[in-house]
């Protein structure tokens, strides 16, 4: 058997850790690794057109599968392009291993062509970022990087000079066991005891849930039922907690709707479950707050806590629910459910008035129709900006659908690259990129990646020829919009020129048929929908301090927006609540 080089050993360790794809753009310093991938049947090289796409795709794959994903960039400019997607993956707690190949090891520190210092550059967007300076160092360093990415749910970066990658691997390198999954964390008895006391003493309890409730839907519902608690959620908690939820009061925050804001402010005890909700202006400062989170660094960094509980949401609730006293009084829950239903009834009118005849098309209508015709197990990837609003208010979760986006990092151009990573995990599953024209055109080159690999991603383009969220931010600041207009091509024609299915929709009556045709198409497809640039949205509660850094306006041009099928869900929940 021929002796391995370092690159081959590197790739073997990745495959043992479960990595199936390496997203990237080839380059000379990466050549030994790419060649090792070529000769290893357990892993594929996914050639994208921009390294930023590679990082976004790897992050999306990790979020869909819950397993380690990987990307790579060549020395200097190549791996620098990874950084934005890696920031997003890290802040989304997606386990990603990034290979940053490096200039020849003998030239580091001497101002060589394309020299950067990737081991330093990526430290802020990773748990671990180190340079391999010797073949003997590689196996242990890569193992440590993998364990940091998986165990701490985030990014690890390994910098590897091309010359070292080509050197012979050390003989008898230890094949150590690799961590490929995370343990569960149970809180301490003292914290459980105190939380039980707080719950039993409170008359009105509200739960506010984030992405940390993934896998804990049944436990949250059982607990809410026992303590008669309204259940609100952050955007990243929506897909995990809103479906089959008779206690749902909607979403709080800048994209919020319903009665979540009131429920969190009118309770005696607010329990934050697995959420790192960033907008503390939407959180109360005059009620008792307990927070449960598996990441201790998240505890108390958004609000002053009366109790911090370090543990998994599911394990915590399994310990907690049997011990708390069942509450009999449902008045607070019923009042919040009614407020929620009434709030949704109010905003839905803005969307229903002649919406099927309005030209340019209301984007709310596009999102609503999309929600109706998409598969029950579809993956939606969502561009930052107004697409976030429409996804938050119109895409109905059901326990099988996924909705992912740059919800913590807030990057433009994330939807298409994320759709690539999501689609590679399962070519038979429907993947829909909800793209804005600004975000799509920023990384439009990787539409070619869909064509090259015949990935059946469906791009639904909300094309209002502007950077709508930025225009709203300018409006808030009292500034005229400037530099926000996009002179766009016919994106459907561009898609067809690339070899994909493309159709342009300018009238509401043509929308449903165009979407259905695109979804039936076996390959990549783009539906270019011309939407109304004046269709904007505001949250249900606004204070002056909430305005900073976000698009809020009380102008007459701003629509409240609709909420799709959520109004029916809310009314159904209200009807099913027994009256005292």
TrEMBL record:
Kinase recorded as keyword: no
Cross-referenced Pfam families: TPP_enzyme_C, TPP_enzyme_M, TPP_enzyme_N
EC number(s) reported in the record: 1.2.5.1
UniProt domain Thiamine pyrophosphate enzyme TPP-binding: residue ranges: 383-529
Domain (Thiamine pyrophosphate enzyme central) ranges: 192-320
Keywords for the protein's UniProt record, in alphabetical order: Oxidoreductase, Pyruvate, Thiamine pyrophosphate
Thiamine pyrophosphate enzyme N-terminal TPP-binding domain: residues covered: 5-120
Enzyme type, top EC level: oxidoreductase
Molecular function terms, GO-annotated: magnesium ion binding; pyruvate dehydrogenase (quinone) activity; thiamine pyrophosphate binding
Signal sequence coordinates: none
Organism superkingdom: Bacteria
PANTHER family to which the protein is assigned, alphabetical: PYRUVATE DEHYDROGENASE [UBIQUINONE]
Protein family (similarity comment): Belongs to the TPP enzyme family.
Protein name: Pyruvate dehydrogenase
